[in-house]
């Protein structure tokens, strides 16, 4: 699996290179992938990866705010999974976390929870697998989300513990401060126990998450998180995938242990759970 950070990168050459090296799945995450050209950029990349590169799985992680039905009509056939970030089913909490629309008018017309349900419905209509990502943090760790998750019925509910990385969300060079969101292992475990009857729940603690992803930035460099910060390798365009992988910090055993291999294609017969 490959997770690509940022919307601007020298994509086609790099993707062909990684496919030759054995890539089967690609995930576009952000920032927010739908910001560039209002989703057209990520849509064209999704189309290219599925149609030209014939990848088993092409997925996108989004906050959902800019997703439209017209996007599904144009690009849904090429997308296997869309994962929507939802950290709370209370709009006031989403506002505290930062997942509410900045405009009062937009909040009234199209709040985060309402948009989540619309995307779920579009997934059903346009044959895209629906997934929810939740980061457990200071503002939501006490919530009971069982009723809402069961009603939305995602194929997977990824539940993450808030992770701090130097230079990204903590430290002097960080663009944002994530320390106020951080919770202890005990509080994270309490959240998981409260929801342990949800069959689609896939927990990811800091320990299991930190080194079990292959992440590429906009310069096509793997990001090594082992030391608590994202340390970039040299670009795969300069030294090749196999050499760059040596500096990725990727823990394949943890990737498999946390359930990294699953039914990630909407073509049900191609991959097993």
Low-confidence stretches: 6-10, 269-273
Largest sheet: 8 strands, parallel
Strand line-up across the major sheet: 7-6-5-4-3-2-1-8
* Strand coverage percent: 15-25%
Give the H and E element order: EHEHEHEHHHEHEHEHEEEHHH
Distance between the ends: 15 Å
From the alpha carbons, calculate the radius of gyration and give it in angstroms: 18 Å
Helix content: 25-40%
Folded structure, characterized:
This protein is of the alpha/beta class and 273 residues long. Helices cover 34% and strands 16% of the residues. The protein is built from twelve helices and ten strands. It has helices spanning 11-20, 40-52, 69-75, 91-97, 104-109, 112-126, 146-152, 185-194, 206-209, 236-239, 241-245, 252-257, and strands spanning 2-5, 25-29, 57-62, 81-85, 129-136, 156-161, 201-204, 215-216, 223-224, 231-232. The strands form two sheets. The chain has an eight-stranded parallel β-sheet with strand order 7-6-5-4-3-2-1-8. The protein has a two-stranded antiparallel sheet with strand order 9-10. Strand 3, helix 3 and strand 4 form a beta-alpha-beta unit. The protein is globular and about 45 Å long. It starts with a strand and ends in a 16-residue tail after the last helix. Residues 6-10 and 269-273 have low confidence and may be disordered.
